[in-house]
Amino acid sequence: MPIFGSYRKRRYQPPLMQSRTPIAAVDPPVPVVGRDALIKAIDDTLRDPGRDGNGALIEVALDNLAFVNASHGWAVGDRLIATVGGALRAAIPAPGTVGQLRSERFGILLSDAQPGVVDGIAEMVTELVRGCRVDAGHRATGTTASVGVVPFAGRSLSAEEALLEADLATRSAKSRGRNCAARADVRLRESLETSLAWAEQIREAVAADGFTLLAQPIRRPASDSVHAWELLVRLRPRSGELIPPAQFFPIAERFGLMEQIDRWVTRQAIVLSQRRRQGSTRRVIHVNVASKSVQSGEFASFVSDEIVAAGVDPASLTFEIAEATAVDAAPATERVGQALRELGCRLLLDNFGVGYASLVHLRELPLDLVKIDGAFVRHLAASAMDQAAVDAVTRLAHASGLEVVAAFVPDDVVARMLQEFGVDYIQGFHVGRQVPVAELP
């Protein structure tokens, strides 16, 4: 994304606040750059000994892109991203830098913008994105943006710290209702310092086997025998109780550590699939895969290398990919899913029903199983709507050649109902509680 240059010689007004003179007639736009180039530009700016302390980084996160993808198709979502990128590029004058941090996130580096200018630019960007529309067939569609602002004035920052603060500020804008801008402040800085400490603890855990694995059984509704085990990772602290993923996964995602965690869990899963008692049936292990691993493009080849090195049966591994990932990163999900299935592994669509995925995904994605989210299962006995949803998903999944798992089964009544609906497998505390992997039969 473009880098904003010197604003000392003239007072800058955001393009939408100027006259109707096209911005290109004043300053030619700089092309949108990739993530690595943007990070280098940020680093060069912050390291520049001649910098006078001005400047800022603005992060622009498109809101509700998953809804656009699910409602109109990924091609429309891609066109909307491209339209926003082009609009930002045209609106930000040289020497500004506009870059694409992720598919739905842009970064704008204002290398020498004065503090009084930055907030106006952030507001302009919010308005600009709101005005971007693309043809979705029968009507035009668009989106809004949550914008995070990190001023450089009077501060000593690294590129990593600036990006992390921008992410936190963007999250703050989202928490305020989206379609607005938020500025990094002392509170966010304190949150960043806490996040950095968490990230270091996670890195240490990856390097020194500092995680603990629990396993939860998956059974057939009318059987007491375990069909498979889902691995659940916990962070083992220096002291105290195990830390659940809800507390450290967001930090791991923010610092790009989820793929390392997924690889650690996958290696343990392969070991566990080999360790079964003499004469017992094959042990099937379920492994959850994060969005970053799916999008990395390297996860399937990693799994292949590990399977070959260990000499295990790939059918003993089932990889679970969340519905949200399947929607947000559909092309990557298709590639990874197809590659894993070609290896002989199985693929499960997790948390189905709570996001924007449609029933069409059951037919189009390279799946073997679908797991109905617990939101439809917990109150199944008392909710006619939940019963209709479970029945419909099960019928359509079976028609597509998929098996069905129901999560969070609370009692025998629901278990029997699921069996009547034809659900293939059930899971939950009533079915079997989590146990340390060392205790697996």
Flag low-confidence runs.
Answer: 1-30
CATH superfamily of the largest domain: EAL domain
CATH architecture of the largest domain: Alpha-Beta Barrel
Question: How would you describe the shape?
Answer: globular
Helical fraction equals 40-55%
Strand order of the largest sheet: 9-10-11-12-13-14-15-16
Mean pLDDT: 85
How far apart, in Å, are the first and last alpha carbons? 54 Å
Strand content: 15-25%
For the secondary structure, the number of strands is 17
Rg over CA atoms: 25 Å
Major sheet size, sense and barrel closure:
8 strands, mixed, barrel
In terms of topology, how is this protein built?
Elements: E1 3-6, H1 35-47, E2 56-62, H2 65-72, H3 74-91, E3 97-102, E4 105-112, H4 115-130, E5 133-135, E6 140-142, E7 145-151, H5 159-175, E8 180-183, H6 186-207, E9 211-219, E10 226-235, H7 245-254, H8 258-274, E11 285-289, H9 291-296, H10 299-310, E12 317-322, H11 323-328, H12 330-343, E13 346-352, H13 361-364, E14 369-372, H14 384-399, E15 403-406, H15 412-421, E16 425-427, E17 435-436
Parallel strand pairs: 1-4, 7-8, 10-11, 11-12, 12-13, 13-14, 14-15, 15-16
Antiparallel strand pairs: 2-4, 2-7, 3-4, 5-6, 9-10, 9-16, 9-17
Helix pairs in contact: 1-5, 2-3, 5-6, 8-10, 10-12
